[in-house]
Every structure is written in C-alpha cells, then in structure tokens.
# Entry
Amino acid sequence: MKVFFIISDMDGGGTQRVVSLLSNQMIKKNSVVICTITKSKEFFKIDKKIKRIKLNFLKKKQIFFRVFNFFKKIFTIRRLLKEYNDYTIISLIHGTNIIVLIALIFSNKKLIICERNDVRKQKVSSLTNFLRFITYGLANAVTTN
# Structure
C-alpha cells in the first residue's frame, strides 16, 4: 500500500500527532509520503524513511494574497499529485481538505478526507461550511471523530 498524507503543517497539535504516529507505524510495511502546505517546523519525530514534501506557502492576511494563494495551492497540489498516481491520498483538516478536493476534480484518485473535530459543532465561516457541503461528497470516504 502507498499512502500520501497531506496536511497544512506539522507544527504540533492533535491532527499532526496522529499523522506522525500513523506514518511512523505504516512505514514499516508501506510507502509513505507526508506533504505540508504551509511553511512550518517539525514538531513530531518522523521516521527518516518517510518522504517529506514541503510546499512552504506563506500565510498572508491580505485578501488578495489569500485568494491568489488559494488558487496557486490548488494548481500546485494537482500537479504534485499527478506524480503519485498509485497512492491513496489522505487529507486532514478542513481547509486542506477543501483545497485537495478541488484540486482533484475530474481525477480518479482515491481520496480519504479526515476531520479531526465534530463538523456539526466546529465553528467555521459560512464559506467554509458551504465549500464543505459542495466538495466533501467528491471524496471516496470521509472520517470524523
């Protein structure tokens, strides 16, 4: 099995901890890649056999840069995932999930979306809720806590 984790960062936190624990166990019998979207530090120890891809997008507050980066992330991720055609992609955290789902429209890749919170109780913007509603049905599976 080949697994490609994609997450916003590995700075620390529960979701990042889960990715590090799963990856460190899975690398014993599988091929594993962890891709981070934003520039971040490595908080958790990751096995050296795990391939790391760091896209290093910067977090910007200006609306123009946020919109520009949103579309740039989509195209960058789409191009990147073409190289990992036979991998199962596991995307974590709602912002990353939406970007990955849009990037993979009209592709036949296996995609699992992971929400580490209760989506009904997590407070997010109306736009995020709308994009979740529109895109999450495109995934092969959606998991939540």
The chain has a mean pLDDT of 89. The longest strand covers residues 31-38.
